[in-house]
Amino acid sequence: MNPIKNALKTLSVTTTNVMVALIFFIITAKITNPAFFGKVAIIQLLEVVTSAFFYIIPSQIITREISYLYARKEINKKLVEKFLSFPFLVLPVFLLLLLLPNYVKLAIPYLFLYLLNNVMIALMIGMDMFTESAITGNFFLIIRWGISIIAVLSHNIYLFIGIWTLGGILSVSMNYAFLSRKVGLILPSFDFAFLFKHFKEGLPLYLSSAATFLSSQGDRVTTAYLLGSYYLGLYQFSALVAGVPSMVLGALGGVLLPTASFYKALGSDEKKMSSISFRVLSLITFLAVIISIPTAVLVVEKFFPAYIAGVKVLILLLLATTLPFPIGSLTNFIIAAKKSLRPFLILSLLNGGLVLLTSFLLIPRIGIMGGAISQVIVSTISSSFVLVYALRENTFVLGRRESVLLTAMPLIALYEVFLDPPYLNFLLLLSVILLFKTFRIITAEDMKLIDSFLPSKLKFFISLVKAIT
Predict the structure, then answer these.
(1) In which residue ranges of the chain is pLDDT below 50?
(2) Which of 280, 421, 422, 430 sits 20 to 30 Å CA-CA off 341?
(3) Residue 123: inside a domain, yes or no?
């Protein structure tokens, strides 16, 4: 279980997503309008609803259990079949979407395939099958954003859904073949006692995910309700562009849970794992924020002039979703250490209620900027909670280096919002490099550990990190 190699494989999927989606959005912005984009946004919103409400055994629980057993060489076919069965149990719930507009009704098969595919991916990465998941991920994204351009050219939302459904069928088929080759031919096995046990164990995460939907998507729902599909399209576009850096970072952070679970099963100390992960991810996150903001603004002004009104919203959303990433990554070590997850439910309920309240208060007064401010508030509260809980549960240690990085995060955010002419980004970049050098954030011991995981073709990365830090 090599976290660097696996991160690179996952990053290939993210890179494909960014490149192909950028082409898709450029064409969509040129030949359609925010109203059509709003319909696409609703389908994407339903994907989030599916993950939040229909994922009754959270992927984190599946991946953690599979990774533990994989480390101990105790994986068996029956276990995989049991986990694979629960999407079929929730299939009837999708019929609730029949109450929505016609094009949403036709998305029901796609949303089921989307859920089933996500469960397969959770099983695969738990068994270190990152290569296989990258293959299907890239294949699906080419269909999702590339071939669906045909539907955009014809302004046909029904064709759009049909193409996405085809992509879902092919992706599920490929993942099924990979899993069957790994453990043998598999069929869903409905062991209700097994499923209820893991549902009960993951219930705090499940309820937390549902509540998080309100905190992460409540601003979009409120925007659609109060301002209509035009402003939803404008806001969703800003959110998608702003989400690119966190999407890339997610490719790196996505390997943390299976890796932490794998090595925890082998006796490694989660505090040391979380510390080095936090410091390395902080370096990558700071550089990503500094580079991404001027790049995103330039892309919008150059290719998407109809969406320039959302640039300030874009900056706030980018900061809210990207800058706290190193803190959010500590959640993986809390889960891997099998600490209580119930406090996350309380946090999610608080965040969900808060984002709805602030959105309803702010959006009617200051438009879509109110939704962005709401996300900043929620992000700040969530990050503070995760940090405190990780410290309390002894899965993270707050030393001098970690304290310096935590202090730098709000300072970078304030600079980007209030003092950031584009030509000064270079100075901020130099300041971050100086910060890491002065406080020796990345140690020689860290370098040795990173070097041990690096593929031979990427050994130059150590020299680059040494130059920066």
Answers:
(1) none
(2) 280
(3) yes
